[in-house]
Design brief:
heterodimer; A: 113 residues; 0% helix; B: 113 residues
């Protein structure tokens, strides 16, 4: 069984440019999460989806970040425009409904220069 | 965002030694999880604890869910070089509108052969 798939693995962009990350969760997992992990820190939640509905986006900086999960399967996280402080690893995770069985992808390492 | 208090921040040990790390929170959790993260990868689940007082083992790893539901510890016995990595504790309250993992800042483990 394929795990959570994320792409790209690495991305280097100049500040003020847009960037997008893609995530395909484990088949059958209703819940999808985007986390951000700053250097030397644990991951912090940005947004959680139950199917196609964003049920918790309280930590998402909505002025520049957006996310979608149109068909309740794969998801895209976008930053526009990127700032230097957005440099981090962006992790996607999925779980069956209820939160058990969390599985993380390998992440996208974003560097904003 | 909220994070758990995890200690120690880092450990340098000799192969064969035992390791102990712990995690505390000001809030109670229904579930405590321990993850290991290696460079360039997402966190991988090691042990999940679902009940206060629960003691669970996974090979050389043993973890306990504190009676107060506000703490947990992880022990690694007879460490080996492949134990190197960053270990994260995470608390979870699942069900309803909850289901977001709250992470500690991690314990970086180095093992000298």
């Amino acid at each position: 069984e394929a795990g959570v798939v994320q792409s790209p693995r690495y991305k280097i962009i100049e500040k003020k440019q847009p960037v997008a990350f893609w995530c395909n969760p484990i088949s059958g997992h209703n819940t999808l999460y985007w986390y951000r992990q700053n250097l030397g820190q644990g991951p912090e939640l940005l947004i959680r989806y139950e199917n196609e509905e964003a049920v918790d986006d309280s930590q998402l900086p909505k002025d520049r970040f957006s996310a979608e999960r149109l068909k309740g399967v794969d998801s895209t996280l976008k930053i526009q425009p990127a700032e230097l402080g957005d440099s981090a690893v962006y992790l996607c995770a999925s779980s069956p409904r209820g939160g058990h069985g969390y599985t993380f992808g390998s992440g996208t390492r974003l560097t904003v220069v | 965002g909220q994070q758990l208090n995890q200690s120690p921040q880092s450990m340098f040990i000799q192969e064969g030694e035992d390791v102990s790390m712990n995690c505390t929170s000001s809030s109670i959790f229904n579930t405590w999880l321990w993850y290991k993260q290696e460079p360039g990868e997402g966190p991988v689940l090691l042990i999940a604890l679902y009940k206060a007082g629960e003691l669970t083992s996974n090979g050389r790893l043993t973890a306990q869910f504190g009676i107060t539901r506000k703490d947990s510890f992880l022990n690694i016995s007879a460490s080996i070089p492949s134990d190197v990595g960053i270990y994260f504790c995470a608390g979870l309250n699942y069900g309803g509108s909850q289901g977001n993992l709250i992470f500690g800042k991690g314990t970086k483990l180095s093992v000298k052969p």
